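Researcher: Sequence recovery benchmark, item below. Answer with residues only.
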């Protein structure tokens, strides 16, 4: 394509252009990889934050439930005492009762209140059992949540630090790419841009006489041409720019 080109006042050899093509491809790969990480890391961080929040919410719910149980238990105690009070008063009334009908009514009410208290007591036993269970697990839950939160916060801090490093590195990589890209003659720049539009990678190395872009075998003759490094050559099969980077022929 071109053996020697002039960029500004500087002459650039094809060898230099080939080296630049390899360099800008590597930078392009790195930029893409950095970008993928810079997109992924905040998602990972958000996921970890959510996990912490969920654990802390579970713990809080358990703690709230224990308080609720205590309160319910107290209310049931009051209700039982209240009913017992009523029963005592009704018992006292029975002495003054004149008719059988009235007597039966009072006894029915006493029975009802006693039955009601039995039900309340059953409910209290359930509450006690639930409280016991929660109390047994809450210490472990607290310890696990604390440990998980501390560990996860460390991971989040490491990820945030990684974002800082990547952002810095990304700026450097982009600057290096622009600088090297500008070093190339216009033909090479246009070629690179054109191949990049249709392929994941514009520049490919050769491994085992194969194009690493499409894995097509290269003919001996073509390989020898590539080894000369005095032309920009494209893979016949995939159209990517092939650069021989092994020992010179
Ligand atoms: Zn190819």
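Model:
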């Amino acid at each position: 394509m071109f053996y020697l080109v002039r960029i500004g006042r500087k002459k650039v050899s094809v060898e230099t252009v080939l080296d630049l093509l390899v360099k800008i491809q590597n930078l392009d790969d790195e930029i893409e990889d950095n970008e993928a990480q810079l997109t992924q890391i905040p998602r990972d961080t958000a996921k970890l934050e959510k996990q912490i929040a969920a654990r802390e919410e579970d713990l809080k719910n358990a703690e709230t439930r224990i308080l609720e149980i205590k309160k319910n238990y107290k209310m049931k105690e009051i209700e039982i005492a209240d009913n017992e009070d009523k029963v005592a008063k009704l018992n006292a009334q029975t002495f003054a009762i004149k008719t059988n009908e009235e007597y039966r009514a009072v006894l029915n009410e006493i029975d009802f209140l006693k039955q009601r208290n039995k039900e309340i007591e059953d409910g209290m036993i359930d509450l006690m059992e639930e409280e016991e269970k929660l109390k047994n697990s809450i210490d472990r839950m607290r310890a696990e949540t604390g440990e998980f939160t501390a560990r996860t916060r460390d991971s989040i801090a490491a990820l945030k630090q990684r974002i800082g490093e990547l952002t810095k590195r990304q700026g450097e990589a982009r600057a290096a790419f622009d600088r090297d890209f500008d070093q190339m003659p216009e033909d090479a720049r246009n070629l690179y841009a054109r191949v990049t539009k249709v392929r994941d990678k514009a520049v490919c190395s050769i491994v085992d006489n194969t194009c690493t872009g499409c894995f097509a075998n290269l003919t001996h003759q073509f390989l020898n041409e590539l080894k000369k490094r005095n032309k920009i050559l494209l893979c016949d099969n995939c159209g990517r720019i092939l650069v021989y980077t092994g020992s010179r022929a």
